[in-house]
Design goal:
Blueprint lengths: L7 E4 L3 H10 L3 E4 L5 H6 L7 E4 L9 E4 L2 E5 L4 H6 L1 H6 L2 H6 L5 H6 L2 H7 L5 H8 L3 E6 L2 E6 L4 E3 L2 E2 L6 E8 L4 E9 L6 E12 L2 E10 L6 E2 L1 H7 L6 H14 L10 H24 L1
Parallel strand pairs: 1-3, 2-3
Antiparallel strand pairs: 4-5, 5-10, 6-7, 6-10, 8-9, 11-12, 12-13, 13-14
Bound molecules: flavin-adenine dinucleotide.
Length: 287
């Protein structure tokens, strides 16, 4: 099936209007870039009764620093993340990821909010935001609430955003001694990952004081490698340590065999990519 089922369409002019409409119309959905939702509608995997287009809510398209925190609005496009010097300075992991996400057509339109809300396990930005220990802001009729990335993805294609709510932003604290990196293997340029690893390290006095590691495409959801994070904390960064973290990544992921490769190959990649991402994150933290 390559045509969507009938649906109504409206263009939201205010955030509160979008939320009111979500509450009023059962089975309505937000559309941002449309690069995930529209293909699903064409395949009839999604059949919303109404699309609420948020592309005019330009107040949600920003990358801003306030004090020691960077906030990215939900409508910020992949291309904005790719080109942001502020992000490149503090969180170079975004540029690493954006260089290997899809192609310019998708990057010009697709948004960080759509990427996180799609909750596709193969998606790169969810792993990036999980590794950086971001906090998302979700707004509903009763106001705003915040949710740590660790609690945001509840399962495949399922998030903490409830009916009648919208994701509006994600924030990251800026801390000294930070380094981050994203590593991905894909079948061809612009493809989804066979496996990808995001890593963030915070290093102080030669010791790792904090670590975030997350994997894409090797499980039913983005995988937080908490066991590897615990291993790293308090240790001095070294290749041997990162090798151990990579071994944990191979063990703690749960890939399925598909056209992108068999399980043992994906486990191997998870380990190698985790080690590479950690090594690059450490180099950046120490430079
Ligand atoms: C050819 C192609 C290749 C791709 N390759 C990659 C890749 O390599 N790596 C990768 O990570 N991604 C890839 N993508 C996915 C792409 O990055 C996503 O489609 C896109 O970023 C999702 O954002 P969107 O704005 O298009 O979301 P939409 O399609 O508009 O929405 C996706 C979902 O999120 C919901 N939503 C959107 N915004 C909000 C919000 N603010 N609050 C609540 N719910 C919201 C929608 O209702 C919908 O359920 C690819 C896509 C295509 C078409």
């Amino acid at each position: 099936m390559q045509t969507p089922a009938p649906f109504e369409y409206e263009r939201a002019v205010t955030l509160q209007g979008a939320i009111a409409s979500l509450r009023e119309h059962e089975d309505s959905r937000i559309v941002a870039g449309g690069h995930s939702l529209l293909p699903m509608m064409k395949l009839r995997l999604a059949q919303p009764s109404r699309l609420i287009d948020i592309n005019d809510l330009t107040e949600l398209q920003h990358i801003t620093r306030e004090g020691d925190e960077i906030t990215i609005g939900a409508l910020t496009r992949h291309v904005d993340l790719l080109e942001s010097e502020l992000l490149a300075e503090h969180f170079p992991i975004f540029r690493d990821a954006e260089l290997v996400i899809a192609d310019p057509v998708v990057r010009n339109r697709g948004t960080i909010g759509g990427s996180l809300c799609q909750a596709d396990a193969a998606e790169d930005l969810s792993a990036v935001c999980a590794a950086l220990k971001g906090t998302v802001t979700i707004v509903g009729a009763d106001g705003a609430r915040t949710v740590p990335m660790a609690d945001f993805h509840l399962g495949p294609w399922t998030t903490a955003v409830q009916d009648g709510e919208m994701l509006t932003a994600i924030s990251f604290p800026i801390r000294a001694g930070a380094g981050s990196a994203h590593e991905k293997v894909e079948r061809r340029a612009g493809d989804w990952a066979i496996a990808a690893a995001s890593a963030a390290l915070w290093i102080d006095g030669g010791k790792i004081t904090g670590a975030g590691i997350a994997l894409s495409a090797v499980g039913l959801t983005t995988i937080d490698l908490t066991r590897a994070e615990d291993l790293l904390r308090g240790e001095a960064p070294s290749d041997a340590l990162f090798e151990q973290a990579g071994a944990i990544a191979s063990e703690d992921c749960s890939p399925i065999p598909d056209g992108r490769g068999p399980v043992d190959y994906k486990r191997h990649l998870a380990g190698v990519l985790t080690k590479r991402a950690l090594r690059k994150a450490a180099t950046r933290a120490l430079s």
